[in-house]
Amino acid sequence: MANVSVAAEWQLVYNRYYRKPELYQMRWKHIDLSRNKVACAPFGGPIAVIRDDSKIVQLYAESALRKLRIFNSAGVLISETVWKNPGGRLIGMSWSEDQTLICVVQDGTVYRYNIHAELIEPNASMGKECFEENVVECVFWGNGVVCVTEANRYFCMADFATMKVCELARPEVEELPHCVAVIEPKYTMTGSVEVLIGTDAGILMLDEDGVQKVDDTLSQKMAVSPNGNFVACFTHDGRLVVNNTNFSSPVIDESCESALPPEQIAWCGMDSVLLYWNDMLVMVAPQAEPVQYFYDEPLVLIPECDGVRILSNSSMEFLQRVPASTEQIFAIGSTSPAALLYDALDHFDRRSAKADENLRLIRASLPKAVEACIDAAGHEFDISRQRTLLRAASYGQAFCSNFQRDRIQEMCKTLRVLNAARDPEIGIPLSIQQYKSLTASVLIGRLINANCHLLALRISEYLGMNQEVVIMHWACSKITASLAIPDVTLLEILLDKLKLCKGISYAAVAAHADKSGRRKLAAMLVEHEPRSSKQVPLLLSIGEEDTALVKATESGDTDLVYLVIFHIWQKRPALEFFGMIQTRPLACDLFTVYARCYKHEFLKDFFLSTGQLQEVAFLLWKESWELGKNPMASNGSALHGPRIKRIEKAHSLFSETKEHTFESKAAEEHAKLLRIQHELEVSTKQAIFVDSSISDTIRTCIVLGNHRAAMKVKTEFKVSEKRWYWLKVFALATKRDWDALERFSKEKRPPIGYRPFVEACVDADEKGEALKYIPKLVDPRERAEAYARIGMAKEAADAASQAKDGELLGRLKLTFAQNAAASSIFDTLRDRLSFQGVS
User: Where in the numbering of this chain does the Vps16 C-terminal domain appear (predicted)?
Assistant: First the structure.
């Protein structure tokens, strides 16, 4: 009998059954759909209602001000607001994929509202042309809209996220179209919007590139199928023609009773098309007689992926094709395994032996029967019927050894979620197919946006999903709605819930509190944020620079410390900034490293404020060297003056500290040397002195023949006699002034001996000059080595024999290894020394 009562509600259309269960009795009052513009979101979404200003209607006890009201699918009021938007008559409204209400007015302005009837800024516009020509019609799809102007021009906003508008090709017809339909970009070959318009010349297809005629049918109403493959057209002679989008092969060509175009046309899944006139709803399907449903109140058809929701003043119904599993079980006279299993449960409950008989009949097909019962339970809206079907599946599963044990559990989970969402107070009547298309995460997001946080949290917890998004949104909403609650009390309420989710971002909640004008609450919340990378930037944004610097230094993250340093640097006076970083070594060191490279003057102010005079001196000294690298610092450039002043200032600062006596003296002498070198460059007009050493300066002066200047440098810097002789010897050799070198050697006995004279001559490859000084060498070893360097073997051997050094003789032999005669001389002398007992 149960099967009969269920199937009695079905309607047979050719070989398919359709059913129309009632989802809700609408809870709203005094809402007449015929007097209002209505926008219903798919997937059981909200319903927006506003009085139609294109109609003359009688006002009862209501205000003359138009109100935009938003209800859930059960007619429970979610929010409302007074419509005060300029721009002329409201042409159309629809819900986007993210449940934003899009409203297009006559001048082309696009207004957006969230589910709480709050206007989302900024508004958008369909363009100057729409403003001047007025919008007369608009057709929406998932996330876009096409507007038609009085001049028969077509403008498309393909994505509400970007709000970019483009004009489509203009048809060569003056009259406005009888109907407009849109093929979504995801279903077109070009990936852009294609618009079908019904005109007196037939059906035209528009896109950005051009216009083409696709069919001669004179269409008055059109609807594109959910998959974009078919177009349903109601013609001028009262026929419904369903064709593919190429208009090459009609699927349906059915005459209707009325030649008047229907008020609405919609697809019921992919199997049939619905036509609605004033009091009649007609369903047309291939190879079947039209089915008529009569209503005494206005309707709104809401296409879904698996059927059509039918909204009236008093109820919400869902017209869909009966699922195959449900048909197997409840069809009148069905003897399928699933039907017998369902019947077996009934006999089992009545303690009848017929239950065992049914199970024996379907033993081989029992797994399929169990699966069918589970699937049918998922498609049911009636909770008691869901329970009975699941009990039947569980009963059959007990006799199956190879059936997946978790299938029933999974379906139970899904149905519990769906039943919770279908509750009239929530009002989201999703079918299981819609739920699978929408996904659980999107459902939770929609519950959050509707402020159904408790249900969203319980579903997240039940399905093992991340609860952070739910708790975060709840916390932000709580802050916004709790202006009268003190910060400390509200903090306790928030922390009690936030601690439920590990790793939740306290910083994000604190940022919302700051944005809501509760800076003290934000500061208290951010103290609980464990991640410095999120904590520190927020502390800076709410003006807690001191705390931010402490947290950044404690984290040890140099990037965060630099972030705080630069922020405070820009916001605070210099002395206050110096005081903040001085007590924190890490911040102080990082600031110093950065400022040494880019901000010398600011760093000098910092060192002066902290009494680090020697650091200022070092900076000045470094600056002087940097000036020296300037290409302009040549030929007596004016840059030498600032360089010397900096070094002198560094000397002055060094002299004020006892620990830097050496640096003070070095700076003083450096300044003196630079001044002399500057004068030399001016007098010689050669940029070869500055930044050279004292030794190089003396050597260069001698090479240039300026002996007086060389003596002055020697005297000024107290150069020792030995160093002076070394420098002058090699400078004269470089100059190849051998006469001057000889005279210099005879002035007095050189304090460095004559060896440097010999080396200078040998290095200059002047062996003859070297012979003048070799005999003057006192040490016979040095004399022997000097003779060897100029290739005089015999003289080297004589000198070596005087030294009586066998090792020296061995080295000299190696020097003359290529000269056999010389080698024999050294061998003879070595043997003689060995005979005399000298090693």
Answer: 504-817
